[in-house]
Design brief:
- With 125 residues, the chain is mainly β.
- Helices cover 0% and strands 46% of the residues.
- It contains no helices and eleven strands.
- The protein has strands spanning 3-7, 10-12, 18-25, 34-39, 46-51, 58-60, 68-73, 78-83, 92-98, 114-115, 119-123.
- Strands 2, 4, 5, 6, 9, 10 and 11 form a seven-stranded mixed β-sheet that branches. Strands 1-3-8-7 form a four-stranded antiparallel β-sheet, with no helix packed on it.
- The protein is globular, with a radius of gyration of 13 Å.
- The termini are far apart.
Length: 125
């Protein structure tokens, strides 16, 4: 069983930056495509970004294009989400997810089997 743990969340001012980290352990052979999702209270889970198995291709939600960057270091079994120019609408719990069936950066949540516990990101002055 793969386990995913997110870290790096916290409180940041509007316009600021944070970098989230997702570290995988266990059955890392299932760590193919990786994605980031977020969910604010009372809202549906929302796709943020995804990266292919080898890191060669990425996929972003329109709301974060040009501001967020997803990357991975397979030697460290880690995935990152660099978040710049943050605003209040980015406030949410952020989750990382791993697909064992897809290598492409799919945006569909149903394609991800393993999920982390989430890390809170709050953007406020």
């Amino acid at each position: 069983q793969m386990q995913l743990v997110e870290s790096g969340g916290g409180l940041v001012q509007p316009g600021g930056s944070l970098r989230l980290t997702c570290t995988a352990s266990g059955s890392i052979f299932s760590m193919n495509a990786m994605g980031w999702y977020r969910q604010a209270p009372g809202t549906e889970r929302e796709f943020v970004a995804a990266v292919s198995r080898n890191g060669g291709s990425t996929n972003y939600a329109d709301s974060v294009k040009g501001r967020f960057t997803i990357s991975r270091d397979n030697a460290k079994n880690t995935v990152y989400l660099q978040m710049n120019s943050l605003n209040a609408e980015d406030t949410a719990v952020y989750y990382c997810a791993a697909s064992e069936s897809y290598t492409i950066p799919t945006s569909q949540a149903k394609h991800y089997r393993f999920w982390g516990q989430g890390t809170q990101v709050t953007v406020s002055s």
